[in-house]
Amino acid sequence: MTTTLGRPGTRPSAARLGLYRAAIELKTFFRERDAVVFTFALPAVILALLGAIFDGVYPGSDVTSAEYLAPSMIAAGIASTTFVNLGTGIATDRDDGTLRRLRGAPMPPSAYVIGKILMALVVTVGETLLLLGIAVVAFDVRLPTDPARWFTFGWVFLLGTTACALAGIAASSLAGSARSAGAVMHLPYLVLAFVSGVFFTPVGALPGPLITLGSLFPLKWMAQGFRSVFLPDSILPQEVVPSWEHGRIALVLAAWCIGGMLLCLTTFRWHGRRGR
Amino acid sequence: MTDTPAVRVRGLRKTYGDTLAVDGVDLDVAAGEVVALLGPNGAGKTSTIEILEGHRDRDAGEVRVLGHDPARAGLDWRTGIGIVTQDGADLTELTVREAVRHFARYYPEPRDPDDAIELVGLTGKADARVRTLSGGQRRRLDVAIGVVGRPRLLFLDEPTTGFDPQARRQFWALIRRLAADEGCTILLSTHYLEEAEALADRVAVIVDGRIVAAGTPATLGGRATARTLVRWADGRQETDDPAALVASLTRRYGGVVPGLTISRPSLEDVYLDLIGDPS
Ligand SMILES: Nc1ncnc2c1ncn2[C@@H]1O[C@H](COP(=O)(O)OP(=O)(O)OP(=O)(O)O)[C@@H](O)[C@H]1O
Ligand SMILES: [Mg+2]
Fold first, then answer.
1. What percent of chain B has pLDDT over 90?
2. What distance in Å separates the CA atoms of residue A105 and residue B159, rounded to the nearest whole number?
3. What distance lies between CA B191 and its chain's CA centroid?
4. Which ligand number lies closest to the CA of residue B209?
5. Could A105 and B78 be called an inter-chain contact, meaning their C-beta atoms sit closer than 8 Å?
6. In a domain, A86, yes or no
7. A271, part of any domain
8. What is the extent of the structural domain holding A62?
9. Is the pLDDT of residue A169 over 80?
10. Which residues contact A265 (CB under 8 A, 6 or more apart)?
11. Is a pLDDT exceeding 70 seen at residue A64?
12. Nearest Cα residue in chain B from A271
């Protein structure tokens, strides 16, 4: 029966094809003005604007509003370049025939996923550096010197990025078409940015029910984790509880990673609206 | 080539909700053959082709493509298949060369990407963004990507829609070359009768999800044996022996028969008759 199969020779490995996919995804991302403006530039613009608008120093500390905003905006930036980016990107791929063409080629499905994840990772690192740069240059945020703080930054970044990326991949199936995807992904993102104490500061001043809502999602915990990296403990009275709650942050983000993975595995569709 | 047919379909059925799109199609495509599917809009051509490509589930029927069931076949099977779909709107931000080169990577023994681009006559546009291509150029890119993996079996769903006459001729030459030089088996759908006539070893006409006629373009619908229509100024007559009729007419008119025409039904006449066009 092998004589009736395709060409002889070995197919390239999924890992190698994943790298090629990542290169194509990155090229496509940065050439699409909509994607760059709405998922990459927007968090930076919001940080610059809100940082300039908010002023004052929190009582009992020397932390300015802009300094408080900056780490939270890094969390929102990550949500944008993972959750929004992957959600709209995959919905578009499903709608415009990208996925169908790829499924018609001898491409292992994992190569597509590897490409998307690597692309999101590169864009997210770029976003984080951009936001850090703005925070340091414009709002006098000091980078910590204590390695323990950078360790915290590392695991919050990894867990948060993974959780939001998986949530984005899962949510892409909710969008009916490429055109509705932008709205479907941006709405939860913007709502969460408010109820997680990013666009509204400090988080402790939010009404109780909104705090509860925000606490269900990863953004609030990611933002809290990044604040613990960049802000002194004298700001703790402005938090929901006067502690950085590292254990709980890790727990919630890890739970979202596992839940997001399960959601992806159960809801992911290769085919678009036209069905099979 | 083996004796196994490239495509073997028996009793294929596909429904979408209440719509019966494919209703018991039988189809064989021998290795190396070029077969055209003809049929009006909504006849079930795309549904049939997509099931053979493994892009669509079927409700019933037996399907073998390169010896495997496309619903279950794996990636090795895919290396032997080339696909040109009816509607692709992807790849817009890449250049033609980037897109073809990327798809070459998936295959174990691909064509040189620049050769594939040359083959479809897009060399002048190799560095243009796909989004800037005209409709016909975009279809040619789809064809280049479809053939870059050197498929043994190529599916083309209305490949020349939007082509200008010259591009269509170039495309025909490409298809003939793939079939003759590389032994590529080709199943294409088309609305153009002259295209089916020019390219296909066999034509299958599909109407309302059923194959209503199949054969070589010359014999389709009994065309070869159809009675010849002889027309002249004062009358018309169908006959099996036009020579005898013309001879008797010549005697009757004592020389030139005024307004004499002798015609066999064209493929278009046969086709319109088959799909039940009342005109
Ligand atoms: N995804 C779908 N959902 C519901 N109905 C569908 C779907 N795809 C096709 N159909 C229906 O199935 C029938 C056959 O459609 P198909 O696309 O196979 O026709 P076709 O022969 O390719 O037509 P065309 O020449 O216009 O491309 C049509 O009645 C169409 O409306
Ligand atoms: Mg069709």
1. 57
2. 18
3. 8
4. 1
5. yes
6. yes
7. yes
8. 14-275
9. yes
10. none
11. yes
12. B55
> Is-contact A256 A163, C-beta < 8 A?
yes
Query: What pLDDT is attached to residue B3?
Result: 62
How many domains are contained in chain A?
A: 1
Task: Provide the ipTM.
Answer: 0.86
* Ligand 2 centroid from CA A97, angstroms: 15
| Tens-digit pLDDT profile for residues B64-98 | 999 999 999 889 999 999 999 888 889 999 999 99
Return the domain boundaries, chain B: 7-218, 222-274
Answer for the pair B80, B155: CB distance below 8 angstroms, yes or no: no
pLDDT (tens digit per residue) in B213-263 = 888 887 776 666 667 888 888 888 888 888 888 888 899 888 888 889 888
Whether the upstream peptide bond of residue A202 has omega within 30° of 0, thus cis, is yes
Q: Does A2 fall in a domain?
A: no
Q: Name the CA radius of gyration of chain B, rounded.
A: 22
Task: Quote the pLDDT of residue B1.
Answer: 46
Ligand 1 near B39 CB (within 6 A): yes
Nearest CB among B87, B92, B109 relative to A7 is that of B109
Does some domain include residue A27?
A: yes
**Is B14 near ligand 1, meaning CB less than 6 Å away?**
no
Q: What CATH number was assigned to the domain covering residues B7-218?
A: 3.40.50.300
User: B210-215 and B202-207: which strand pairing?
Assistant: antiparallel
Q: Which DSSP letter does residue A142 get? A: P
Residue A219 near residue A75 (C-beta atoms within 8 A): yes
Pair B9, B26: CB distance under 8 Å: yes
